[in-house]
């Protein structure tokens, strides 16, 4: 693909503006925030803050839902702007009638924090959390049940089939998302369209029970920081191996960051995954199934640091593809890993 100097300059300015905003603010603050309405179930007493529709949604569009669970000690406010960020990053998502749900965790006593109560999906006994961390089966089960209620509510009141639902979460929320997505052994349980784990982990690893139908129908996107000091990077490697071992299609990408939620490349890759699983004919760049996003890797392409940085930025916004094993590939060419 040949780019004019004007196109390159515009690309740099646009990417720089977004990246700067991400580095200085919480997720989604680079887009003007909006008040998120409350989605109330007439069938239950549960109130779900954060369920909203695209401003342009109408009944003629394909329905879908994205449920995203925040991390320990956080709130839905930290992630609600995904409802605007994702369609901006992948315009094809705006063509869908998407309901976004950002439920709040309940106040839970956290053992590793001296029993202090904070918003959480279950108790935490170890810090940092490695592959041998102790689980809280009861807390996990309760949170998975909450997710199931939301899914049922979306189907009964919004007409959104579970097969059009993507379940995701950050950190502790990502752990719940994996549990809820891949341990669906209830009778007549319909597999989700996809699952997203951002800097999370696979809990209850010795009791993983994934049906063949779920493994084939629900792909997983797992993003993790290589220098994550809270949910250790080994959790991604271990969890991916376990889930692939039972047939789950996993896209795992690591980034040269710590335990962060405001990394532009992660959000952009997540948007690409959502486009791929929710849009019938996605126009998305292909992302390597296993990649390490690292500007230094591009050094093998040219000897010019500024050119390397520019090429990497073009990859990040989807104009070119980026393959950590060999630098750049031609546009829309499947990388040979």
UniProtKB/TrEMBL annotation:
Domain of life where this protein originates: Eukaryota
Keywords, comma-separated and alphabetical: Hydrolase, Signal
Residue spans crossing the bilayer: none
Gene Ontology MF term list: hydrolase activity
Phospholipase/carboxylesterase/thioesterase domain location: 56-277
Secretion signal, residue range per the UniProt entry: 1-21
Family stated for the protein in its record: Belongs to the AB hydrolase superfamily. AB hydrolase 2 family.
Protein name: Phospholipase/carboxylesterase/thioesterase domain-containing protein
């Amino acid at each position: 693909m040949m780019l004019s100097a004007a196109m390159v300059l515009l690309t740099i300015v646009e990417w720089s503006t977004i990246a700067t905003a991400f580095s200085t603010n919480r997720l989604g603050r680079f887009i003007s925030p909006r008040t998120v309405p409350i989605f109330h179930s007439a069938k239950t007493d549960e109130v779900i803050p954060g369920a909203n529709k695209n401003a342009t949604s109408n009944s003629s569009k394909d329905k879908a839902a994205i449920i995203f669970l925040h991390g320990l000690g956080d709130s839905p406010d930290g992630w609600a702007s995904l409802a605007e960020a994702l369609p901006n990053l992948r315009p094809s998502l705006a063509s869908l009638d998407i309901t976004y749900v950002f439920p709040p965790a309940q106040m839970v006593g956290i053992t590793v924090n001296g029993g202090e109560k904070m918003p959480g999906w279950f108790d935490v006994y170890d810090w940092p959390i490695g592959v041998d961390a102790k689980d809280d089966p009861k807390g996990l089960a309760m949170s998975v049940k909450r997710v199931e209620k939301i899914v049922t509510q979306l189907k009964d009141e919004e007409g959104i089939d579970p097969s059009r639902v993507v379940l995701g979460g950050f950190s502790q929320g990502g752990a719940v998302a994996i549990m809820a997505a891949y341990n669906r052994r209830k009778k007549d349980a319909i597999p989700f369209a996809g699952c997203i784990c951002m800097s999370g982990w696979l809990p209850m690893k010795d009791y993983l029970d994934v049906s063949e139908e779920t493994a084939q129908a629900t792909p997983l996107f797992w993003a993790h920081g290589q220098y994550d000091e809270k949910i250790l990077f080994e959790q991604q490697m271990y969890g991916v191996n376990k889930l692939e071992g039972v047939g789950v299609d996993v896209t795992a990408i690591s980034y040269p960051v710590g335990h962060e939620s405001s990394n532009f490349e992660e959000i952009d890759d997540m948007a690409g995954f959502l486009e791929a699983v929710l849009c019938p004919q996605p126009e998305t760049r292909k992302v390597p199934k296993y990649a390490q996003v690292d500007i230094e890797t591009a050094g093998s392409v040219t000897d010019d640091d500024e050119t390397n940085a520019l090429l990497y930025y073009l990859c990040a916004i989807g104009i070119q593809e980026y393959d950590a094993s060999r630098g750049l590939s031609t546009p829309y060419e499947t990388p040979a890993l």
